[in-house]
Amino acid sequence: MLNRKLSNYLFQGSLVLILAAVILARSIIIGNIDSSIKQKTTSNRILQKEITALEAVVEENKGLQSNHLYELYHRVPSYFSQEELEFEIYSYLYLIGLDYQSIYESNIDIKDYTSTTSFNGLNDVYTIKSISLQFNTTNQGSIETIIFELINSNQMFMINDLTYSIPKGENYTSVSLTFLAFYNIEEGS
Q1: 134 with 162, same domain?
Q2: Using CA atoms, how far apart are residues 150 and 163, in angstroms rounded to an integer?
Q3: What DSSP state is assigned to residue 126?
Q4: Which of 34, 72, 93, 116 is 20 to 30 A from residue 155's alpha carbon, by CA?
Q5: 48-98 pLDDT per residue, tens
Q6: 58 and 9, same structural domain?
Q7: Which bin fits 75, alpha (ψ -120 to 50), beta or left (φ > 0)?
Q8: Residue 101 lies in a domain
Q9: Are 142 and 164 in contact (CB under 8 A)?
Q10: Same domain, yes or no: 150 and 90
Q11: Do residue 53 and residue 100 come from a single domain?
Q12: How many Cβ atoms from other residues are within 10 Å of residue 97's Cβ?
């Protein structure tokens, strides 16, 4: 009988030890998760403060032109970045009042410029990119605005072709604009 009681005590003791180990492991895991959550929350608060500060700076400088970006290049940058050029074009589309859906539906095509016209000699001096831009707008004044922005940009753009039409029975204008961007890229760079 003593043997049976001892085995019951050992069995119950082992159950208590297993239960204590499970509870201890659970509390350690939950403690680690809680500390990880606190670290992430603190990190998110810091990031949110940085985002808020950056949004305030952007809001303060919203009306400023980005003319200072190309002052060092004297209107002809010394390097070409397709991504930067695309983002600049998207910023012009946003500036003329297109919403995100219209900007998303616009078409931008950037190619090397080749021509047999009088500009052909410029290909020896500059790297010239031809940008074809198609977009739809409900405000015809935005066509004039984008041309004005291209002409007054600190980078040298030259308008090559502009066509626009109002499809029958529609209340928007379909615009196709081709312009040239000049880059002074030295050999080997």
Answers
A1: yes
A2: 16
A3: S
A4: 116
A5: 988 888 888 888 777 765 544 444 344 677 778 888 888 888 888 888 888
A6: yes
A7: left
A8: yes
A9: no
A10: yes
A11: no
A12: 13
The residue type of 188 is G
DSSP string, 32-91: HHHHHHHHHHHHHHHHHHHHHHHHHHHHHTTTS--GGGGGGGTTS-SS--HHHHHHHHHH
Q: What are the pLDDT digits (tens) for 23-38? A: 998 888 888 888 888 8
- What DSSP line would sit under 155-172, residue for residue? S-EEEEEEEEE--TT-SS
Residue 169 and residue 129 share a domain? yes
d(CA 179, CA 166): 21
For residue 168, the one-letter residue type is K
- Rounded Cα distance between 3 and 71, Å, is 94
Query: In angstroms, rounded to a whole number, what is the distance separating the alpha carbons of residues 29 and 32?
Result: 5
Asked if residues 131 and 180 have their Cβ atoms less than 8 Å apart, the reply is yes
- Domain span at residue 125 reads 75-183
* Number of independent structural domains in the chain: 2
* 37: its two tokens: 């959550």
pLDDT above 90: residue 18:
yes
For residue 69, tell me if it sits in a domain.
no
134 within domain boundaries:
yes
Residues in a beta bridge with 182:
128
